[in-house]
Write a structure and sequence with these properties.
Length: 137
């Protein structure tokens, strides 16, 4: 699979259920996940049927922009990520405070540094500065 948006996430953008500019958006470092971007809708789908483990959670994204339908934000750092097996996915989601109602937005599995194997240190995610930034609708 390559970087993509979840179908239900696209739908939620179109109905106004997700606002990149004003909602709390976080990015989760995930291991052991089998993505299904057609049917997975909420963060709980990753740890449920997707078999994944949420290894680290970013703070709310800051400096978010939406110019020309392109989503961007400040780079993020996961601090002191516990050592463990490789993590192959970054999952973007709106954070509602409850995994069962936090809608999935996007999946990043193709980027410099992925997969990453946590070793107890910090992991920095630098978003693409090209035309599509984090993602483009």
């Amino acid at each position: 699979m390559s970087n993509t948006l979840y179908d239900k996430g696209r739908e939620k953008f179109l109905t106004g259920a997700i606002s990149w500019a004003s909602d709390n958006i976080k990015i989760y470092l995930v291991r052991g996940y089998t993505p299904n971007t057609s049917t997975h809708e909420f963060l709980s789908d990753i740890t449920g049927g997707g078999g994944g483990t949420l290894v680290a959670t970013s703070a709310n994204l800051s400096s978010k922009t939406t110019t020309a339908g392109v989503a961007d934000a400040a780079d993020i750092t996961y601090s002191a990520v516990a050592a463990g097996a490789a993590c192959a996915h970054l999952v973007i989601a709106k954070d509602t405070g409850t995994a069962g109602t936090s809608p999935l937005i996007g999946l990043i599995d193709t980027a410099t540094g992925l997969p990453v194997t946590p070793n107890g240190g910090d992991i920095t995610v630098t978003f693409d500065n090209g035309a599509n930034k984090i993602f483009k609708l």
